[in-house]
Write a structure and sequence with these properties.
It contains 6 helices and 30 strands. With about 450 residues, the protein is α+β, with helices and mostly antiparallel strands. Helix 1 crosses helix 3 and helix 5 runs antiparallel to helix 6. The termini are far apart. The relative contact order is 0.12.
């Protein structure tokens, strides 16, 4: 692993010079003839070696070290003319005050340069520009937990990753697959809230990202996903927590990733997503008894990276991402009638969010950062029919986290915020719980 202070390799210097031009990960990959995942590995190493936390800071260091040159007009206006040569002296050539002035001038010049560059498109996955790989307009997320916060930090996930599946079963959480610094992952890590501990389980047979997972009966089902090369999959793999083993189920009717997933009764519902070429509005339902997928009424709008949750027997599908734009969309599906209707839109466009239902309300978590600064989460009150802001522990950008509910607590694991995260956070929205003691007759 790269360490702070290590020299950059020739390839890392090439990547850093392209970062300084505002190039996206995809553009860097095209110019250097490497994969997007390799670009992300180079950037992670660059940040570690330079001690930088963002592209802007890395660019500033590159300018300071002379690896990247400022335009002449910025240099002449921001940096004083060179002093006449003087005889060498063992003393520092500049006073601390003088150095501070020069550093401040250089920072002003760099800031002007960065602001003058056109904004680069979000970093993209290998999916022909269909999906972003994460990273937004802000630096690494800041975790803020006030004294009255209903959020808590838990033991961090051992493997940092985003676009993973997270399912609750048997009092534990199962974090499956996703994408990390090394590309698509097959990792399965299990969190025990009672002991605040993690342990490894058997790897998923097929490494994939942009997936979701759901517990159905005594199994955890993981449909499809996309490979590190951007290929959408139709495989459906089933994990048995009792035996720590995997099996296959009936394939998806269509290869898919970045879909929304929810369970109603003993059936699994899958909404939208992408096949790697286009955005889909499809609705599929899986019957585990018959091991069969069926097509249902499509959503009103095609989209990927939406989230789904069940409230009062109906499935809400919220947010999403289409062609570089996050969405405020909200639609509600009635499984009994196989019909859709619109619901109140989010107050902020969100793609790659999580959605949970607790205490008769929906909570939209994360999913901000590509189109704007993430400053809050949202809750939906079905009686009022509107979304309102609630606290977020992560500021800036936060997409692709695994989100699940266990014992009236929402758990949010991993995600992406200008880097892959290993964060484990819990959220208890209800101010109190009611316990009904058992009585003997």
């Amino acid at each position: 692993m790269a360490e702070y202070g290590e020299p950059l390799s020739e390839r890392e210097l090439e990547a850093l010079k392209l970062v300084a031009t505002g190039a996206s990960n995809k553009e860097i990959a095209q110019q250097l003839h490497i994969s997007v995942n390799t670009v992300k590995v180079h950037l992670r190493n660059i940040f570690a070696k330079l001690g930088a936390v963002s592209r802007t800071e890395a660019t500033m260091i590159a300018v300071r070290e002379g690896w990247v040159s400022l335009p002449a007009e910025l240099v002449t206006t921001a940096v004083p003319a060179a002093e006449p040569a003087v005889e060498a002296s063992p003393e520092p050539p500049l006073s601390w005050f003088r150095r501070a002035v020069l550093v401040a001038a250089a920072l002003l010049a760099i800031t002007a340069l960065v602001l003058s560059w056109p904004r680069a498109a979000p970093a993209e996955s290998p999916l022909v520009g269909v999906l972003p790989a994460g990273g937004g307009v802000s630096p690494n997320p800041i975790v803020r937990l006030g004294e009255e916060s209903r959020w808590s930090e838990r033991a961090q996930m051992p493997t940092r990753r985003a676009w993973l599946g997270l399912a609750a079963w048997g009092g534990r959480l199962y974090a499956i697959g996703g994408e990390g610094p090394g590309g698509s992952s097959d990792a399965v890590e299990v969190y025990d809230p009672s002991g605040d501990t993690w342990h490894r389980a058997s790897a998923r047979p097929t490494p994939a990202a942009y997936i979701a997972a759901a517990a159905l009966s005594d199994r955890i089902i993981v449909p499809g996903g996309c490979t590190g090369e951007g290929t959408a999959l139709d495989v459906v793999e089933v994990y048995d927590p009792a035996t720590d083993g995997w099996a296959s189920a009936a394939s998806l009717p269509h290869p898919l990733c970045a879909y929304a997933l929810a369970t109603v009764g003993e059936r699994l519902y899958l909404f939208g997503g992408t096949d790697g070429q286009e955005y889909l509005a499809s609705t599929f339902v899986y019957d585990p008894q018959a091991d069969r997928w069926e097509r249902r009424a499509p959503m009103p709008q095609a989209r990927a990276l939406a989230a789904a949750a069940v409230l009062e027997g109906r499935v809400y599908v919220v947010g999403g991402y289409v062609a570089g734009q996050e969405l405020t969309a909200c639609a509600v599906y009635d499984p009994a009638a196989d019909t859709w209707q619109e619901c109140a839109p989010l107050t902020m466009a969100r793609g790659g969010l999580g959605l949970v239902a607790i205490g008769g309300r929906l909570y939209a978590i994360g999913g901000g950062g590509w189109g704007g600064y993430l400053g809050f989460n949202e809750q939906y009150d079905p009686a009022a029919g509107r979304w309102t802001a609630v606290e977020t522990p992560v500021m800036g950008s936060w997409q692709g986290a695994g989100v699940a509910v266990l014992d009236l607590t929402a758990y949010v694991i991993g995600g992406y915020g200008d880097d892959y995260l290993s964060l484990s956070l819990s959220f208890e929205p209800l101010p109190f719980r009611i316990f009904i003691p058992a009585t003997e007759r």
